[in-house]
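Input structure tokens:
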């Protein structure tokens, strides 16, 4: 088992292993004792797939369970209210501990409830998707969607610890796995060259979710995110590098009407940002083909036909992470990113037409 310690005002540890064998020992180390009451929260899909794990929990502790319907559409106030009611009905108090077992939706919701119930109680995060293992389980952002706006209500709040098992990835649908790989590629470009080299050399093993490959990748991504989170926890500066590929990515996610997942959209956004980096920051033009090749081999998209450019540019300009001017994260080199590069619509259009929408 590997550990990554996140050094914040209140530090916490992420444990990474290829199974959950050491989970209950770890809980003991956190003074969570046999017969303590724990509130296990997950979605209906994960609970169905991993009933054996829930049974194991029930053997070790006094478990109260709450399952909600899976999916982003349920990352809302109704689900939050359901969890609050469940906690109240079961007499959860300040000493209670929540366990979030599931993907990013479960993690964000359970984290938010933990942050707000009785002004903050403890929670443990067990992320079960690649996206949640490399991204949402670190950095403290918790919350939910409201009035159709993603993550508009939220807080910064950290778990007691995070326990990652690569075994969960085995049951992920292909599209969901590839979704996470989009973020993995993002990480491989913003900090240094090591991760991209590793991915290039191990494409097959990664596509087949081999344990050692996934362990390496998850550790690398978390170390990279840890670096940015520790120096800019509240995301006012350099942590913004983690949004590489996301400005165009969000617009693709919205305008593709569900065809592309978040990670797939980010992959396309990365290609646009690389072209723009060539045009604006003189990024070497060898990188584009390299990255395109990797995306292709991993099953990520490399082409996107923009149907309506007016609508598309409208979507880019309304990306909530931007102020009035359009600001992009671009690259000077692999591992050398630049945040808040002000660009105009022409720069973006040119980048798109040279990369994902060549109009052939
Ligand atoms: N807090 C952050 O910093 C942060 C960062 C990135 C993303 N997010 C959030 O994460 C969410 C996306 O994460 P996600 O893709 O994990 O979403 P998700 O929780 O909706 O999981 C995706 C689907 O996979 C299913 N699933 C989960 N684990 C599984 C497994 N092991 N095998 C088979 N199916 C499984 C779920 O039931 C769901 O249907 C978004 O809401 C996003 O806003 C948060
Ligand atoms: Zn993302």
């Amino acid at each position: 088992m590997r550990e990554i310690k996140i050094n914040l005002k209140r530090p916490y540890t992420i444990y990474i292993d290829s199974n959950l064998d050491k989970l209950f020992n770890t809980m003991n180390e956190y003074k969570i004792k046999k017969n303590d009451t724990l509130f296990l929260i997950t979605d209906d899909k994960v609970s169905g797939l991993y009933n054996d794990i829930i049974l194991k929990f029930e053997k070790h502790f006094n478990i109260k369970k709450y399952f909600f319907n899976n999916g982003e559409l349920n990352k809302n106030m109704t689900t939050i209210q359901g969890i609050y009611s469940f906690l109240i009905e079961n007499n959860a108090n300040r000493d209670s501990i929540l366990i979030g077992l599931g993907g990013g939706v479960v993690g964000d919701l359970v984290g938010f409830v933990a942050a707000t119930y009785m002004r903050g109680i403890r929670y443990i995060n067990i992320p079960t998707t690649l996206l949640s293992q490399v991204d949402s389980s670190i950095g403290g952002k918790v919350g939910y969607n409201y009035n159709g706006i993603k993550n508009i209500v939220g807080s910064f709040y950290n778990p007691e610890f995070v326990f990652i098992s690569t075994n969960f990835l085995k049951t992920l649908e292909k599209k969901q796995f590839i979704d996470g790989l989009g973020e993995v590629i993002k990480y491989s470009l913003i900090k240094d060259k090591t991760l991209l080299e590793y991915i290039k050399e191990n494409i097959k093993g990664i596509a087949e979710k081999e344990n050692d490959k996934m362990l390496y990748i998850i550790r690398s991504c978390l170390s990279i995110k840890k670096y940015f989170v520790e120096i800019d926890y509240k995301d006012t500066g350099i942590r913004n590098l983690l949004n590489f590929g996301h400005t165009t990515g969000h617009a693709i996610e919205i305008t593709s009407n569900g065809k592309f997942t978040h990670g797939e959209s980010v992959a396309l956004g990365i290609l646009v940002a690389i072209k723009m980096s060539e045009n604006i920051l003189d990024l070497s033009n060898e990188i584009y083909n390299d990255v395109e090749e990797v995306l292709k081999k991993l099953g990520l998209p490399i082409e996107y036909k923009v149907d309506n450019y007016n609508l598309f540019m409208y979507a880019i300009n309304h990306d909530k992470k931007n102020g009035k001017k359009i600001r992009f994260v671009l690259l000077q080199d692999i591992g050398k990113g630049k945040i808040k590069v002000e660009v105009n619509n022409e720069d973006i259009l040119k980048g798109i037409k040279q990369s994902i929408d060549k109009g052939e």
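The chain has two domains: 2-171, 174-354. The mean pLDDT is 96.
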